[in-house]
Amino acid sequence: MKVLVVGANGQIGQKLIELLQNSSKHEVRAMVRKEEQAAAFKEKDVDAVIADLEGGVNQLKDALYGCDAVVFTAGSGGHTGADKTLLIDLDGAVKTVEAAEQVGVKRFIMVSALQANNRENWNNSIRPYYAAKHYADRAVEQSSLIYTIIRPGGLLNDAGTGKIEAGEKLERGTIPREDVAAVIYESLDTARAFHRSFDLITGEKSISEALNAI
Amino acid sequence: MKVLVVGANGQIGQKLIELLQNSSKHEVRAMVRKEEQAAAFKEKDVDAVIADLEGGVNQLKDALYGCDAVVFTAGSGGHTGADKTLLIDLDGAVKTVEAAEQVGVKRFIMVSALQANNRENWNNSIRPYYAAKHYADRAVEQSSLIYTIIRPGGLLNDAGTGKIEAGEKLERGTIPREDVAAVIYESLDTARAFHRSFDLITGEKSISEALNAI
């Protein structure tokens, strides 16, 4: 598969790009906002495209042409202003869904947040961020795409452990970004993950074992 | 009909409450956030209930029991912080939709904003507000309710003229809040407005004439 990574310059995005670049079964395209970010990827032999999530659906369609899958891992993690949260985490995500539908890119992986699906479990210190993720996820689920919504717990910069827990409703926990990237990578062609949404934290199982048990 | 007005203390809300209170065919209940706001309505013989749009769906269900219709006219007009925009204009609105569905209140009128349905026509100075209204409106349209989405242009405090233009896609314009309240009132039992969304500005037609031409 050729995979467009939206939010390629983010921390999860960069790790995912590396996995995809080193993969024999996939190709990757990095979507970034700035010329210098694209240049940095191209220097590393990564196909890169410039598009703005605050722009129109058409430039996202252009970015998606020729791809088979898209991973949406753009966004702030809750610490930019809520105005950008509305325009990027919510509207930018939904525009990406619409672009994928219009171009015919069927496979869509969304990086969300633990329990974004349950209002009563939203993290109170960043409720507006959770609201944006919640409605973006709803749009993904209502789309015609073969989606997977991954809802990681608190993101760490620690090295990945390769051991995870994945499930409909997990208690709060954490997970290294490296492991999130690995779960995205593994989910791409794991049929068990199609049309599924799940929480993700560090646990006891290998990634393929955990994905096949969701 | 007994009509719950969500955002009763707002400027459109207050005008609508007055119309409903003076109506022989409707009854009204004001939903407000604060004890003193409820007391003020009760002093004017208006049934009032306290509920918080940032709270759970259950308190909205309690507010809705016994009503036949709900008008959502809460919100900031775009000048509160985007965090509140996400939690009230978007999530609060969708929770009201869910509460109405769960309680069996079928008629729902949403006060939106001119061209909130078309991203390319959003008012650039308040795009995050438009995004919130856009996704709230989508949820209304996807609900099982008999909705009307009214998308007024720039709101004025001028006296109403009773002359409006209503349509799928109008150029930017303005309209007195008093006329918006009158259009809501008239829409409540105008079958032509059921399952319809329309822009609203000052125009040449009487309200019933305009509504029956949408």
From TrEMBL, chains A, B:
Q: Which SUPFAM superfamilies match?
A: NAD(P)-binding Rossmann-fold domains
NAD(P)-binding domain mapped to chain residues: 7-189
Q: Which InterPro entries match?
A: NAD(P)-bd_dom (IPR016040), NAD(P)-bd_dom_sf (IPR036291)
Q: Which PANTHER family match?
A: FLAVIN REDUCTASE-RELATED, UPF0659 PROTEIN YMR090W
Q: What is this protein called?
A: Sugar epimerase
